[in-house]
Sequence to fold (1011 residues):
Amino acid sequence: MLSIELKKYQHLWIDLSFIVILAGIVYLLIQVYINLIVPFKPLSHISLSPIALIKYSAYSTIRMCAAYGLSLVFAIGYGYSAARTRFGDVVMVPLLDVLQSIPVLSLMPAIVLFFISLFPRSNCGLEIAAIVMIFTAMAWNMAFSVYQSLKAVPNDLDYVSRIYQFSRGRKFVSLELPYSSIALIWNSMMSFAGGWFFLSVNEAFVLGKHSYMLQGIGAYMSVAQGKGDGRAMVYSLIAMGIIIALIDRLLWKPLIVWSGKFKIEDTTAGHEPESLVLDYLRRLTVLRALRRFSSKVRERASLHRAYTGVRDRVIGVVAPVLRPAGILALVGVTAAVLFGIYRSAYILFNLSGKDLVYIATSALLTFARVVATILIGVLWAVPVGVYIGMRKRLATKLQPLIQFFASYPAPMLYPLALLFLGAAHVGLGIGSILLMLLGTQWYILYNTVSGAMSLSDDLIGVTRIFSIKGFTLWKKVIIPAIAPQLITGIITAAGGAWNASIVAEYVLYRNKIIHTRGIGTLLNTAIEHNNFHLLFGGTFAMILIVVLINMTVWKRLYRKVSQLSQLES
Amino acid sequence: MTGQNQGTDIIAALDHVTRTIEGTRRTTVTIVDDISMQLKRDRITALLGPSGSGKSTLIKIISGLQKPTSGEVIFNGVPLAAPTSKISIAFQNFALFPWLTVFENVAIVLEAKGTDRQEIKEKALKILDTIGLDGFEDAYPKELSGGMKQRVGFARSLIVEPELLCMDEPFSALDILTAENLRREFIDLWMDRKLPTKAILLVTHNIEEAVFFADECIILSKNPGRIRANISIGLPHKRNTESDEFKMFLDMIYQILTNPEAEAESIQSKFFVTREKYQMLPNAKPGAIAGLLELVFERGGEEDIYKLSDELQMEVDDILPIVDACVLLQFVRVTEGDITLTEQGKEFVTADILERKVSFSRQAMENVDLVKQTIRFLRAKKNLRLHEDFIEEYLSKFFTPEEAKRQLEIAITWGRFGELFSYDASTGELSIEEPAANNAHP
Fold:
């Protein structure tokens, strides 16, 4: 009797706490809304007090979440269209390559000016601009993940969906989305980290004569850095750590545990991850009641009929419009692209010789730094990643830590790194490699760990039985097995390194800008001087190099490697 | 057994189906080559072949998942254009959605058809019950054993009430006992007409499985897959895997598969095509024949077989070869379970031992092909002697080696009893005794 009573109360407490949390979220959202509708104020005041930092952290988190939501919708939509339409592989995937290689800085003027002009009287425009900039750091990678998952849906399940004539929607909901979700969730964690990376850029920036600043932890960090306020910097480092840990516990961990049910390999071997938060949510009577209610509703035949009726009517209205709209959109996009190409060509041909030399030398310097970054990253992260990934228990123990480091925005650590570089008498020319490495090595580690974890237990067993060791083990088993993921990791890391050059080659330190020649510095100065021709030229050079290398080196390698692993199955 | 009266009712057919794929260096590889076959109502057809024979490709072509390079699939009289739930597949590795419960996995295919929810529920529960998944509705696939997973696979492919159920190696991913058990349950359901499908196509590389299930067994060659043989297995279902007939089919198919270069027909003919042409001797000793005839004579020349076996405390199966031998020698007639002595039979029973031998040899010479043939062989020889291996060799055209040996043994026993020829067991030589031969040949 007593235990039953206790259980009853336990549920009560769980439900009550949920209501409190819900209220907190609603309060925060209202605060954000109030913030949004204040009159246009490009330069928000940033207080360096730790109390204010709590508020700023919440704002930044909400911005991140909004950008993430946007990215999620985009990624699923774009990834799906790219994988399932005729032009997807030809047009959309290469376009994604290009988009991925555009640094946020190059898009910044366009995004900011567009949204500010859209909401000239409220701060809304600036907020949305910041969110969209964060979005550009998250979305492309996630879209790739969805695309790749959709291309790899297991044959048998695809056959089932075809034999029983699943509609596109049903196939998407019952097969494609669940199948993609695991990779997407892991990718989301990485992309979210990518979003934090540029937060300080996205919340505080200079466009020509105008400075912009939004209330947020990124802006707080910038101000602290600018003023050389060591205490405030430490505060922001700690706050950032807490936010990342919290988001990991409250969002990613539950999602990963929940997504376990979407695993195709259906043996329940080894360690099953657990999440307190997920347990908590599962215990909510509110949610369970809701679920029961919805399943009851769905079982009602009349309701179902009504639903399908409405659906069919909507389809009936939308379907005839869809095709002309698509064609119109295609024509529009083509026209825009053609115009863009014309304008680009115009700008490029009108660049002075001096500018061209400047762009070329900058690009080459940054290219060298990127190569160095990747080399160093691979050299340490691959052995470590394989070591961790092949020991599932260790991996599950270390993963939270790796995730924490990976999610931590490297630019926040730059002041520390610069102190170290200063002490070691290393200039930014070489030192920026360290700065770039701080952010991008995690992509390589991440992917290596997941590649090594996907090595089947059987395969590991075989290597043990026949004591395949050392060089043979690496050459014949490990490298081929992790190759697809490793290459994905390197592609992402290279992209990340190019992007990181923007913050690594041009650093604000103690109210002073330190910079070294490179494409990052070029873009920064171009924006500061409102030199759009140089901005465009630099961006173009960067896209060109990144896409060309991707196409000539990595994509080919990836295709070869993934063909090999396909033969296996 | 079932389909014979509706043998022309074709559910689906392959018409000269060929599929090629692009190989490396601009070559084309032929996967299956000019396959024509018919899948008939109430019949289980097995596709049997080694790996590389394109079995799985054929199943994909039949179900519309892949297009043949040339030829077409005819379903219900019209060319099949796209996959349809009227042709469903049970997969080797089950192909269940890991994120759906057993019930949802089965229900989803009806949901996709837009079936009413109440109906889905009823149908799903019914098929789950039939297939032995009662109580597992809310389990997830990963909680189930392999056998239970395949049951879910079966349930899902059957809930749509397909006209043709294709099964792609459905038992190969299971352990032997589970597979055995599931096979038996499956065939029971099929024979009891509890499986809502009209015809079944079973793809397998397991000979025993093919012989166990198939009414018709199509054997494919490999690289490319061509039809080598189409063997009709006329055994009644719920087959006894230990029976001689079952083993004969196993043996035959095994020989066809292990001799990929050989003409399948010649192997087949060794086993059973000519077997019907050559008279088969029932395994009965002359003494037993005489005993049975005496018994019937004592009961007034007419008796019920079952009564007879009862009195003798013998199984009907043991008495039948003796009865068959008496029928063959025309000593008795059998009508509806009753044995009646013929004139020759009465003559035999009432004669003394020497007259019995004459009577027996006459009946054997008139009615027993192998005895006649042996005499003919012996006469053809100048020294009237012949080694038994010669006749065994001759018989091997019609019988399995084992059966050939047995047939010869029976013929020798009968021939010696009738003093038609003599046999030296130490040398294995047969020879004619002139007088007896003269007697027997009026």
